[in-house]
Amino acid sequence: MTMISRRDLLIGAGAGLIGAPAILRAQQLFTAFPFRLGIASGNPSHDGFVIWTRLCPDPFDEHGGMPTGPVDVDWVVYEDEGMRRVAQKGVERAWPELGHSIHVELSGLRPDRPYWYRFTVGREKTVLGRTRTLPPPGAPLDHIRFGVAGCQHFEDGYYTAFDHLSREDVAFVWHYGDYIYEDRARQVNYERDGSPKVHVRDHAGSDCYTIGDYRRRYAQYKMDPDLQRAHLAAPWFTTFDDHEVVDNWTAATSPYQKDPALFAIRRAAAMQAYYEHMPLRRSSMPNSGAMQLYRRARIGDLLTAHFLDTRQYRSSLPCTGSFEPVCGDVAAPGRTVIGDAQESWLREGLSARDSRWNLIAQQVMMMPLDRRTEPGPVEIRNMDSWAGYDAARERLLEGFQGLGNVVVMTGDEHQNFAGELRRNAGRGEAVAIELVTTSISSGGDRWIKPEAAQYIGTNNPFLKHSSDRRGYVVCDLSKARWQASFRGVDHVTTPGAAISTLATATIEHGRPAVRMS
C-alpha cells in the first residue's frame, strides 16, 4: 500500500528528478477538489468534539476518486474566527478502508465556548467551520438552546430549512435520523392517494446494497449546500433511523430480505458508510455489522441528553408491520424496542437525578396514536413505532414516573406533534411530554389533509398539537421551563422559502403537561 504523505503533496516542480515521481503522484491524486462533501463537527463534550471530513474528488465513484492508499491530512482548530490563535493542530491519516474519511477526536479544550476548524491537504483547503464545547457536567447553567432536525429525502424537496437552521444560535443540533434514503431514483412521484406529486430531483444510482451504493448516496446528499451550511454552523449529535439501512428494518430483520444472513451483509455496508460520513467518535466505529450509538451527554446541571438507538436491538415489527389494527403481538411482554441492556442503561441514567431536565432523544413516536383518519370501529396504529410495543413502552414510562422533567424528542413522522405520554396505552397518568419534529424535506409540500389531522386529534386526547410543514425545532431551556419552537417553511419543492414559527410548546418544570401558543 503506497503512503501519500504531506511531503509528497507539497514537493514543487523544482524538485528535480528525485521529486518527479512524487509530483506525478500528487497530480494523479486529486482529479478535482477533494473536500466536495464539506466538513462537520459533532459529539461535543465539555473539553472537545469530533471534526470530520472525507476526501472525495469524485463523489459518484465507489472509492470517491481516491487511490487505494492512505493520505495524510492536516487539521487546525482555532480559538478565533480570524485564525490568529491556534488551539490545537495535527495530522490525521485518511484510510481507504474507511473511504478516506477522517474523524479527529479533540480533548483538552476550554469548556462552553466556540472554536473554528479547517482541513488542508497539499494546496487544497476547506472552508472554516464553527463548533463549540459544552458546559462542564454539573456546572451551574441557567440556559441552553439546541436544534432538532431529520428526515431529509433528497427527491422530495430542497433543504431550505437547513439553510435557516444554520443561522439559529444553538449550542448543538440533534439529528434524529433518515439522513439518507436508500431507494433508487423514482423519476415520477405520487401522493398517497395516487395523484401526481411534484418531483424535485433524482437520486443517483439504484437501491443501496453495497458499500459503494451507500457511499454514493451519502456523497450526493452531502454535496447539498444548505446541508453543508448547517454542518458548518454547530456540532451535531447524530443517530440513525431506518432509511440509513432500509425502510422499517429492525435488528436482524428486513421487510425486503427474509434471509438474516443476506440482510446482515447489507446492514454492515450501511453502517460502515454511516460511520464514514458522520462526525462520530471511534467508540461508534462499526464492528461485525453493529455500532455503539446510544450514549449520554451531561450538560452543566441543566440538561442530561440520553441518545437512544431504536433499531439495532428491536424485536421484529408486530402484525404485518404497517399502519393497521392492533394484533396480539402488540401486547407481548417480552418484546422490546431498545433491548434489555439499553433499557437498564437508561434507567440508571435517569435514577442519577443530577440534572434539571432529561432529554430522551430517539427516533419513532412513543405516543400510541390512533391513526384512524375517518370513522371506523377498529383502532389503527403505526407498528413501526412504540405503538406496536405496549409492554416496552410501559417499562419506559414507569421509569419516567415521578421525575417531572422528562421530555422525549422524536422524528420519523414528517409532521410536528406535541402531547402527553400517559401510561396504560395513553389512558392513564401523564408522566412525560413528547415533542415530534417534522421533516426537513420528506413528504414534500403539505401532504396531510386537514380533515384527517382533525380526526386524529379528536381520537387522541393526549395529543395537544399537530402541524404539517417541513422544518425543524429549536428548544430553549431554562431551569423553570422548556420551550420548543416549531419552525417551518411554506414549501420545499422550489428553493428560497421563508421560515416562520408555526407554534410554540411550553413545559413547566415539575409538570408533565404542555401548553401550546
Overview of the molecule:
This protein is α+β, with helices and mostly antiparallel strands and 517 residues long. It has 2 domains: 6-132, Sandwich (Immunoglobulin-like); 144-179 and 212-516, Alkaline phosphatase D (PhoD) (Purple Acid Phosphatase, chain A, domain 2). It has helices at residues 6-10, 16-29, 160-165, 211-222, 225-233, 260-277, 339-351, 390-400, 423-426, 450-459; strands at residues 39-42, 50-54, 71-78, 86-94, 101-105, 114-121, 124-125, 129-132, 143-149, 172-175, 189-190, 196-197, 236-238, 295-299, 303-307, 323-325, 357-361, 380-382, 406-410, 416-422, 430-436, 463-467, 470-478, 481-489, 499-508, 515-516. A 7-stranded mixed sheet has the order 13-10-9-23-24-25-26. Strands 14-15-17-19-21-20-22 form a 7-stranded mixed sheet. A hairpin with a 3-residue loop joins strand 14 (295-299) and strand 15. 47% of the residues are buried.
Pick out its properties:
Purple Acid Phosphatase, chain A, domain 2, 10 helices, Immunoglobulin-like, 2 domains, alpha+beta, 517 residues, 7-stranded mixed sheet, globular
The biggest beta sheet reads: 7 strands, mixed
Fourth CATH level, the homologous superfamily of the largest domain = Alkaline phosphatase D (PhoD)
pLDDT under 50 segments (min length 5)?
Answer: 6-27
Q: Which range does the strand content fall in?
A: 25-35%
CATH architecture of the largest domain: 4-Layer Sandwich
Number of helices: 10
- Helix content, binned percent: 10-25%
Lateral arrangement of strands in the main beta sheet = 13-10-9-23-24-25-26
Mean pLDDT: 93
Give the helix/strand class.
alpha+beta
Shape: globular
Q: Kindly, what is the distance between the CA atoms of the first and last residues, rounded to a whole number of angstroms?
A: 61 Å
Regarding CATH, which class of the largest domain?
Alpha Beta
Number of discrete domains:
2
Radius of gyration, Cα only, in angstroms?
23 Å
CATH fold node name of the largest domain: Purple Acid Phosphatase, chain A, domain 2
Task: Give the total of beta strands.
Answer: 26
